[in-house]
Amino acid sequence: MFIDGRGHITLANRMCDDIFQADTSEWLEHLYYDCIHDHNFVLFIQYVFLTETHAHEQLYFDDGWSVKHYEAYGTPVTNSKSQLHGVVVVLHDITGVKRLEEIRKDFVANVSHELKTPVTSLKGFAETLLNESMENQDVQRQFLEIIWKESDRLQDLVGDLLELSRIETHNFQLNLQPIDLSKIGAETERLLRKKADDKSLQFNVSSEGNKEMIGDAARIKQILLNLLTNAIAYTGEGGEVELNIYEEAEFIVCRVSDTGIGIEKQDLPRVFERFYRVDKARSRDLGGTGLGLAIVKHLLEAHEGTIEAKSKPNVGTMFTICFPKEWSGW
Ligand SMILES: Nc1ncnc2c1ncn2[C@@H]1O[C@H](COP(=O)(O)OP(=O)(O)OP(=O)(O)O)[C@@H](O)[C@H]1O
Ligand SMILES: [Mg+2]
């Protein structure tokens, strides 16, 4: 936008219509402060006129529906005798950058919060053990167990965070090989059998048809582990957890289902977000930080796979993942 020495707008490009949500061709030959309603922007232009120096500021325009952020640049235009001809102002839309900044801030806040809780309790229990002459061996042991559990959680959290950031780097590469999903399913079952037995859960694994595909065995194992760990964690004593692997025309499908507490409809689309937990208090008791499904989603995307979740509160939950058979890497 160009504003001449008298303060009249003499040029406004087409983008101005979008930015100001107005027909800015009608602004031409009018005083800028009569046309522009945003007080801060008017002040900004005024500043450039008064100081006759280059200025640069972040502004935002709120039209009641949405907020748009702009980087505003203003430069005086002078002739060879240093007389002011007018001012050029340029607005650069930085709404997307601002949004990313928000996400980053949220993320840091979440991580710090998640780290703070176990660290506080580690410190508290260690302090008590150190300060008080504790005769009672049982209580001592109890405290040490809490310390062990909390440090274990901390280790999981840090591990998950590292895993997520590794997956998100540009040069993240899968170690692709011909794999057999039923083998991976069986390995996962072996790892989790005890956890399921401890809760007296019925844990069934079945596989049918051809389950050979191209994929990264370690990553797919991680996907199944995360889903099944959830199924076991969020299912009460005596319930059922199932892993079915089968073949469809174009896909190899893995289905993890449980007869657990379920997820309310409004929470379902959000469970894949980092740190999202349906019931924070309960989930934390179970040791969760809300990163498991975010990792699952990323790893699946790397395999061009999809995931779908269905659930009914107090009935159970079913996660279905599909790997395209055709996919052979890239
Ligand atoms: N099978 C399930 N049944 C009921 N709720 C589930 C199930 N799977 C996931 N959820 C809900 O979705 C949330 C997110 O799951 P996610 O695995 O990402 O995190 P988490 O289990 O809390 O922590 P972690 O990072 O240790 O896996 C859980 O906190 C839980 O509320
Ligand atoms: Mg989990």
Automatic annotation (TrEMBL):
<keyword id="KW-0472">Membrane</keyword>
<dbReference type="GO" id="GO:0000155">
    <property type="term" value="F:phosphorelay sensor kinase activity"/>
</dbReference>
<dbReference type="InterPro" id="IPR035965">
    <property type="entry name" value="PAS-like_dom_sf"/>
</dbReference>
<dbReference type="InterPro" id="IPR005467">
    <property type="entry name" value="His_kinase_dom"/>
</dbReference>
<protein>
    <recommendedName>
        <fullName>histidine kinase</fullName>
        <ecNumber>2.7.13.3</ecNumber>
    </recommendedName>
</protein>
<dbReference type="InterPro" id="IPR013656">
    <property type="entry name" value="PAS_4"/>
</dbReference>
<dbReference type="Pfam" id="PF02518">
    <property type="entry name" value="HATPase_c"/>
</dbReference>
<keyword id="KW-1003">Cell membrane</keyword>
<keyword id="KW-0902">Two-component regulatory system</keyword>
<dbReference type="InterPro" id="IPR003594">
    <property type="entry name" value="HATPase_dom"/>
</dbReference>
<dbReference type="InterPro" id="IPR036097">
    <property type="entry name" value="HisK_dim/P_sf"/>
</dbReference>
<keyword id="KW-0597">Phosphoprotein</keyword>
<keyword id="KW-0418">Kinase</keyword>
<dbReference type="GO" id="GO:0005524">
    <property type="term" value="F:ATP binding"/>
</dbReference>
<dbReference type="GO" id="GO:0005886">
    <property type="term" value="C:plasma membrane"/>
</dbReference>
<keyword id="KW-0808">Transferase</keyword>
<keyword id="KW-0067">ATP-binding</keyword>
<feature type="domain" description="Histidine kinase">
    <location>
        <begin position="110"/>
        <end position="327"/>
    </location>
</feature>
<dbReference type="Pfam" id="PF08448">
    <property type="entry name" value="PAS_4"/>
</dbReference>
<dbReference type="GO" id="GO:0004721">
    <property type="term" value="F:phosphoprotein phosphatase activity"/>
</dbReference>
<keyword id="KW-0547">Nucleotide-binding</keyword>
<dbReference type="InterPro" id="IPR003661">
    <property type="entry name" value="HisK_dim/P_dom"/>
</dbReference>
<dbReference type="InterPro" id="IPR004358">
    <property type="entry name" value="Sig_transdc_His_kin-like_C"/>
</dbReference>
<dbReference type="GO" id="GO:0016036">
    <property type="term" value="P:cellular response to phosphate starvation"/>
</dbReference>
<dbReference type="Pfam" id="PF00512">
    <property type="entry name" value="HisKA"/>
</dbReference>
<dbReference type="InterPro" id="IPR036890">
    <property type="entry name" value="HATPase_C_sf"/>
</dbReference>
<dbReference type="InterPro" id="IPR000014">
    <property type="entry name" value="PAS"/>
</dbReference>
<dbReference type="InterPro" id="IPR050351">
    <property type="entry name" value="BphY/WalK/GraS-like"/>
</dbReference>
